[in-house]
Amino acid sequence: MKTVGIIAEYNPFHNGHAYHIRKAKELTGADYCVVVMSGNFVQRGAPALMDKHMRAECALRNGADLVLELPVCYAISSAEHFARSAVALLDRLGVVDSLCFGSECGDIRVLTGFAQALTDESPVFKKTLNQEIRTGHTYPQARNTALEAAAPHLTPNINILTSSNNILGIEYCKALLYWKSAMVPYTVKRTGASYHDNSLDTGFCSAFAIRESLKHVGVTEHLTRQVPASCLTLMQNAYQKSYPIFTDDFALITQYSLLSGEDTDFTDYPDIDKELSDRIIKLLPQYRDFHSFCDLLKSKNRTYVRISRSLLHILLEIRKDELQRYGQEGWVFYARMLGFRESASPLLSAIKKNSGIPLLSKLADAEKQLAPTALSMLEKDIYASHVYQSVVRHKYPNPDPFSEINEYKTPIVKL
């Protein structure tokens, strides 16, 4: 039995994602595909367009056999920690033979070469990097110069570091080295639109284009050509009932969280130093909505996405000391199931036999399966989903005001 792992957000799921799953199985000869997916909040520092169970079902309808949730403390982390934790989760299952990801480059040898150089961090690399940062260059600029100095054989391909999927692919390869994983990396060349292209007329459009279309015009004929038919009915039935959800839907609840903490400071949250904390407090009276506040806070050395992740850490009560208690950066204590195909029962049996971490199917059983530190990580996932669902219910009120939507009552998706 061969199994390939995929790390994804599917925000939302589209034809390009279905193609990636097919190619991953084809390239690796895998019998099964395990997807590690962000939950209700994603790595760019935003809520997911639609909830995690709906996105998991889309993946299962298009070739995935098992979908697991990446803990929220890592799902809204930097690319390095996002990749490291997702790779750790796949690796600890004990059954995943390969990891397949998309990239603009499409050449796994080039990507692994950059990963090795960045992992080794030779004396020349470190010295050049520090010099460049001291002279005022941004980290990406300093990193590129340091790589050219320390590993000149990579210089002809240095431009691949300007593309988001290449960068994330390198982080996946670095994570495999970090964990000394036996999983073999593969990459599928990304085709179609770039990440920020908002056109729906390309072969494979971007998820960004679909989000923009759903935000402004809804489920249109153009959209039907970009989403698998097996997902389209789900999207049509749920549209304006439980999605779409956007960052500014969290404007008031985020403002309340910031007001609640302004009498102290925010430096106990990840990625927030004294300078940023003081800036948040100073500019808080100008808060209008989530998006514009991020724009107000960003600077040369702090991007919009990094600011957005910082605000989500505050909203979801994810603190530095909690991450430190988890031990190694990116360490994962459990594999929480969002959905599976019943035909994948041999895969589930193999995981239960070989996994180094519990496979969680029922939250009610978590206390019996997890140590206190692991349980605290899971409680963050539960809290994050309840925050998300509270915003969904406010935006799309349920006809039955007494109906319950929470993590304990939402069933695992089974196909």
Description:
With 415 residues, the protein is of the alpha/beta class. It has 19 helices and 10 strands. It has helices at 15-28, 52-60, 72-75, 79-92, 108-120, 123-134, 139-150, 164-178, 207-216, 221-224, 229-238, 251-261, 274-283, 290-297, 304-315, 320-325, 345-354, 366-369, 372-395; strands at 3-8, 32-38, 41-42, 46-47, 66-70, 98-103, 184-189, 335-340, 359-360, 413-414. Strands 1, 2, 5, 6, 7, 8, 9 and 10 form an 8-stranded mixed sheet that branches. A two-stranded antiparallel ribbon has the order 3-4. Helix 14 crosses helix 15. The longest helix has 24 residues, at 372-395. The two termini are 21 Å apart. 43% of the residues are buried. The mean pLDDT is 93.
Fold blueprint:
Elements: E1 3-8, H1 15-28, E2 32-38, E3 41-42, E4 46-47, H2 52-60, E5 66-70, H3 72-75, H4 79-92, E6 98-103, H5 108-120, H6 123-134, H7 139-150, H8 164-178, E7 184-189, H9 207-216, H10 221-224, H11 229-238, H12 251-261, H13 274-283, H14 290-297, H15 304-315, H16 320-325, E8 335-340, H17 345-354, E9 359-360, H18 366-369, H19 372-395, E10 413-414
Parallel strand pairs: 1-2, 1-6, 2-5, 6-7, 8-9, 8-10
Antiparallel strand pairs: 3-4, 5-8
Helix pairs in contact: 4-8, 5-8, 6-7, 12-15, 14-15
Distinctive features:
alpha/beta; two-stranded antiparallel ribbon; 19 helices; 11% strand
Please summarize what this structure is.
With 415 residues, this protein is α/β, with parallel strands linked by helices.
